[in-house]
Specification:
The complex is a heterodimer of chains A (about 140) and B (about 140). In chain A, a hairpin with a 2-residue loop joins strand 3 and strand 4. Chain A has one domain. In chain A, strands 4-3-2-5-6 form a 5-stranded mixed sheet. In chain A, helix 2 packs parallel to helix 3. Chain A has about 140 residues and is an alpha/beta fold. Chain A is elongated, with a radius of gyration of 25 Å. Chain A is built from 3 helices and 6 strands. Chain B has about 140 residues and is an alpha/beta fold. Chain B has a domain of about 90 residues: Nucleotidyltransferase, domain 5. Chain B has 3 helices and 6 strands, in the order αββββαβαβ. In chain B, strand 3 and strand 4 form a beta hairpin. In chain B, helix 2 runs parallel beside helix 3. Chain B is elongated, with a radius of gyration of 32 Å. Chain B starts with 16 loop residues before the first helix and ends in a 7-residue tail after the last strand. Classes of the chains: A alpha/beta (about 140), B alpha/beta (about 140). At the A-B interface, helix 1, strand 1, strand 5, helix 3 and strand 6 of A face helix 1, strand 1 and helix 3 of B.
């Protein structure tokens, strides 16, 4: 009696389905991250300075305040009045688990000093004694984010 | 006559890897290009002076060097301790001279309409001249 011999199959197959899943997940992740980054760091023509230190504006949980040349003040994509910023800072400093607040002022190079001075006064009133100002290197082209 | 019957071949579904690899590489190139368009930014630190606000008087206890910027049609008018300065390079030379003599804090004051870039330029000049205790004044400067 001849027994039926099981056929042996050689070769390997690449399973595409999980690969597609991973690729699409990565795409969604990068799209989301870049969207969040753009919300916080608005397109502004920053002033130039030689003595600026290299820094990532999105690093380290700083409060990023964007001041446009028309005087509009925006945090995380939302326009704020100085009163609401004061309230925001009071809430932040009043939290039990809050450390010292770090503030980055991203002011347009043509923004009026009056607006930024008022903003700095709000920071001072809330007990903040130092702010960082975002600058670019001289000769660097303004961003077209 | 017996005709030979054609064998029915079952079509095996196949995914075309080549097109997918194309798409993935296009996306990769796209993200690489867009990330390089993000402008590198620097930070410059400044203290906030409390003089004149009524809170925390004496935050700058020593008599500071006062740099005042007034807005004029041609740009900005610079004074350093009431002394008229022609431009920012001259201000840097003046501050370098003062920094060599004594270590004093600096307060930068600006008139309302002065563009922010001039205030930052003054701050930058102070740092370049070796004066690191620089604060922006909260006071409103009248012309």
């Amino acid at each position: 009696m001849q027994l039926h011999k099981a056929k042996r199959e050689y070769g390997c197959e690449i399973n595409i389905a999980p690969l597609i899943d991973v690729v699409f997940l990565l795409i969604i992740f990068f799209l989301t991250v870049s969207h969040i980054a753009r919300i916080q760091v608005e397109p502004l023509e920053l002033p130039e300075a030689q003595e600026g230190k290299k820094a990532d504006p999105l690093a380290g949980g700083r409060l990023i305040v964007n001041v446009h040349r028309d005087g509009r003040v925006a945090i995380a994509g939302q326009t704020h009045s100085l009163t609401s910023i004061r309230q925001l800072l009071v809430d932040e400093t009043g939290r039990e688990d809050s450390g010292p607040i770090s503030i980055l002022i991203r002011g347009d190079r043509e923004a009026s000093w009056e607006k930024i001075r008022e903003l700095m006064n709000v920071c001072t009133d809330c007990g903040i004694g130092q702010v960082d100002v975002a600058v670019i290197e001289p000769g660097q082209k303004p961003s077209d984010l | 006559m017996r005709l030979t019957r054609q064998k029915s071949v079952l079509a095996v579904p196949q995914l075309n890897m080549a097109s997918m690899v194309d798409v993935v590489f296009l996306l990769l190139i796209f993200f690489m290009c867009t990330s390089s368009l993000n402008q590198p930014e620097n930070d410059i630190s400044s203290q906030l002076s409390r003089l004149g606000t009524g809170t925390g008087q004496g935050a700058v206890p020593e008599r500071p060097v006062r740099i005042r910027l007034l807005g004029v049609t041609a740009g900005v008018l610079i004074t350093c301790d009431e002394k008229r300065i022609a431009d920012f390079p001259s201000l840097e030379a003046e501050l370098q001279r003062r920094a060599a003599l004594e270590d004093r804090p600096v307060v930068i004051e600006g008139q309302a309409g002065v563009p922010f870039r001039y205030m930052v330029a003054a701050l930058d000049v102070c740092h370049r001249a070796g004066m690191w205790r620089v604060a922006f004044s909260p006071r409103e400067v009248k012309p």
